[in-house]
Amino acid sequence: MSKYTPKSARERGERFVNSWTENAPGDKWADMTLDEFKTKRAAITAKEAEITASEAHTKALQIQRDNLNEEFMEDCDFVAKDVEGSRNYGPDSALYGGFGYIRKSEKKRGGRRLAKPPDHQ
After folding, report:
1. Over the range 17-34, which residues count as b (16 or more CB within 10 Å of their CB) and which as e?
2. Which residue has the higher pLDDT, 1 or 54?
3. How far apart are CA 68 and CA 75, in angstroms?
4. In a domain, 40, yes or no
5. pTM for this structure?
6. Total domain count for the chain?
């Protein structure tokens, strides 16, 4: 793992390019010209732009997926309500229970319990 974050590497690279351009534009360092150094930096900038575009595309795909999920969940609600209201199936059918709903016959019944009055002695 690199000890430089993309931001710190970008800032450091800019400092190197600026200083080299200003102070020794015609000199070679580490067997590299300023143009070769800038070309390497440009490749990183291009890759960063590619990542940004990919992230934007991914975000757009996630929004599209979420919209499709929302529409599909609405369809599930309509299907469940239709089965619940069906004379052939209804709210006590295996189909309705298979959807994840509690069948009518399985629901617990019981009225409200009144609190017991305190014993007076």
Report:
1. eeebeeeeeeeeeeeeeb
2. 54
3. 11
4. yes
5. 0.64
6. 1
